[in-house]
What we know:
The structure is a homodimer.
Chain A (H helix, E strand, L loop, with lengths): L1 H5 L8 H11 L3 E3 L6 E3 L1 H20 L3 E2 L5 E3 H5 L2 H7 L5 E4 L2 E3 L6 E3 L4 E8 L4 H11 L8 E10 L13 E11 L2 H22 L4 E5 L11 E8 L5 E11 L1 H5 L3 E3 L5 E3 L1 E8 L1 H10 L16 E5 L3 H21 L4 E3 L7 H10 L4 E5 L1 H6 L1 E6 L5 E5 L3 H26 L1 E3 L3 H8 L4 E6 L3 H11 L2 E6 L18 E6 L3
Parallel strand pairs in A: 3-9, 17-18, 17-19, 22-23
Antiparallel strand pairs in A: 1-2, 4-8, 5-8, 6-7, 9-10, 10-16, 11-12, 11-24, 12-13, 13-16, 14-15, 19-20, 20-21, 23-25, 24-25
Helix pairs in contact in A: 3-7, 10-13
Amino acid sequence: MAKELKDLTKRAENYSQWYNDLVVKADLAEQSPVRGCMVIKPYGFAIWEKMRDQLDKMFKATGVQNAYFPLLIPKSFLSREAEHVKGFAKECAVVTHYRLKTSEDGNGVVVDPAAKLEEELIIRPTSETIIWNTYKGWIHSWRDLPIMCNQWCNVMRWEMRTRPFLRTSEFLWQEGHTAHATREEAEAEAQKMLKVYAEFAEKWMGVPVLQGVKSETERFAGALDTYTIEAMMQDGKALQSGTSHFLGQNFAKSFDVTFLNKENKPEYVWATSWGVSTRLMGALIMTHSDDNGLVLPPRLAPIQVVIVPIYKGEDQHAALTEKLTPVIEKLRESGVTVKYDDSDNKRPGFKFADYELKGVPVRLVMGGRDLDNNTIEVMRRDTLEKESVSFEGIVERVQALLEDIQQNIFEKARTYRDEHVYECEDYEEFKQRVKDGGFFLCHWDGTEETEAKIKEDTQATIRCVPFAYEQTPGIDMVSGKPAKCRVIIARSY
Amino acid sequence: MAKELKDLTKRAENYSQWYNDLVVKADLAEQSPVRGCMVIKPYGFAIWEKMRDQLDKMFKATGVQNAYFPLLIPKSFLSREAEHVKGFAKECAVVTHYRLKTSEDGNGVVVDPAAKLEEELIIRPTSETIIWNTYKGWIHSWRDLPIMCNQWCNVMRWEMRTRPFLRTSEFLWQEGHTAHATREEAEAEAQKMLKVYAEFAEKWMGVPVLQGVKSETERFAGALDTYTIEAMMQDGKALQSGTSHFLGQNFAKSFDVTFLNKENKPEYVWATSWGVSTRLMGALIMTHSDDNGLVLPPRLAPIQVVIVPIYKGEDQHAALTEKLTPVIEKLRESGVTVKYDDSDNKRPGFKFADYELKGVPVRLVMGGRDLDNNTIEVMRRDTLEKESVSFEGIVERVQALLEDIQQNIFEKARTYRDEHVYECEDYEEFKQRVKDGGFFLCHWDGTEETEAKIKEDTQATIRCVPFAYEQTPGIDMVSGKPAKCRVIIARSY
């Protein structure tokens, strides 16, 4: 373990390796024997749980209810929406049999050919098809609308190149699916959920995001509009962190879902879907962490404060514990998660490095001299600043510090992001600079050809038409044609 | 909808049909187009969420941490533990391919034969194998123990005959998997989790359970001991509601998981696993509900109190709302979930029947005359008793009533259960009576032969060796041989 702490690759050396190392060393996740599928370890899962619980509250506050739809989708469902099947058919895990039998040599099991399914089933890559097939039975009149369901579940997209949290064959996510009587209401819902995601990312994860709308090429398969939040990682690459789709009447038409409007006339239902996944863990890690390990926002840290007494002998141990107990209790009463680590089987230096690696936001250390002087040492993980302060008022100081760290890491990330958004009008310059990361605010003629050329030349893609920047007239730097809009272009995860 | 309310089958007519009807009519769940898989609707899922959140708290209070392991398990893993594969091979959903492609006629998608997996993957029916394969990497020394992980997830067991919640091909559950240094510690853990389940069932679900240990035949595939909680439904049948397994060193041996003990010698790790599933929803429904619909324990009811004002015209509506608002606020402040239903698009009679069907524990109704008299009508769902009471002190009355209902439905179910536990020493009598339901406390010679004969003759099975009843000496009623123990025998779900 002590060795592991030292072995973390430096970001400047190899950012990608640093990320992979950190995920493992901070006990967040590890590869499983199943290709592209990971094990989320307890410490990583505790962070995900906090994210999930907060998002869940925010969804419910907008009137969304949770439900659960089947894992398996009949193959034929996928084909009903033409764009949808194009988008997902190439990465589907397919269930073809429902039984194993003992192999002839008796030493193992083989698929039982007699137990072949009549129609193959797909492990859901996303659930629009099965949900709209279900909504058909739920929706008859305008009185049945809106329907706003969400499910927290696992999905499977067979990816060829995987990275923990960022791109895995199986991942955990939530998918919201709403049904509305009017186009306006559905569009407003898709935009509302984008705002929920943005608020969560910024206020809880401390991750600044650009909100915007995707180009047609980058849309969700089957959507009329895909809204996105795009975060910038420390290497300047974009990470699409959440998407919300206005699906129009596409799925209603594919699954024949109509309602009688107030004039008693049948109309197709309007739809949205929206999702965030364990990918957010990747955004969280890559936005804040450093060469010593994780840096976690206090609001999502499984342990917010660790208190380490440094003692010689049981008397001092007891004296420190007695002194610190009221602090622990008061912090806990105020809702702060505190770990009191007075274990004697690890050296303090080891503990310090381990809690830094794990991103615990605040560390308090107290030793014999502190007892005499009525002082305590406070370390904040985000800046690694250490300070010896009076023991009096330590509870309030820690509470304020947690707030300050939450704010500080967001501001720091936002400053970094803002410093790496470049306006660029020259394609040669763009090609040169985009390799080093950053978001490029460029005029675009709105054609797929230009989009494809940029991708081919630079691997960078149009991330979105951002809402935060003014739409000025201009010339497309690639085609030289008049621009349709300004977009953010970047290399991405 | 109004029609649906009336169409609920009576329990006395057809208990099984009543259950199926109720699940659908109370908006708990419905069949999906995928064989044996259900859609859990928002109202049903809200109950499951409450169950899950409470259980999760109770698990964490014992030191258990949540994690997440892959959905898919390599086929070869299953074969490693001989009993385990025997138990699960016959009901495995098998993934054989990872891609679809456009069919030749261009109108659909087919499995791409070029995308065949080298080794088939099984959708987890339970996760001992993949988890113990993972634990191998986590456990080296006694210092790494115990490990206590739980996951909330979906599992798949391809069932031929399915019923909503009770037996479905896909279901939601939690599976705890713990690893220990000693046999004693693992046995104690398995028993501790059984106690957690029993406490949850009785205090939260209001479902009395018999705790006991399974016969060898009825054990979990791969366990040395399976502990169980058995509940009695209103038709006298048993419902196995949760199980906790002492797995010995079986999985540690199959996956070669050893640790260095304090003497630095390698030993195999001791294991437990334990789980409850959406099956608990079936137990909840069948224990308390009646011919008018669901009866829910207040602690798990998504809506605990519904308040229906009865008004003519907007003035009276406003006056009632003004009068009731402080009650709603005070109840909500004290943690009670209140629905204020002043919608004017449904008649009061319809609302009453609907909330009865949905099992809302307490209904308050207030009309114009109540306003004049400063009274309010209180209805409790468990007994359907209605009472007009003074408006003063209504908040405290409702709070007390919720507690009383929670207690009352448990006592009622316990009395029913206790009245239907029969001591029986005569096999002819047993065969006659067991058809009508009930738990039969009988002496058993401990042989598989006797167990098999009882099952063949009566469809009843040995549910458990119950802890609550004294183990008296006696004679096996089937074989006439001296008994090894006393067991509970019953027909079951």
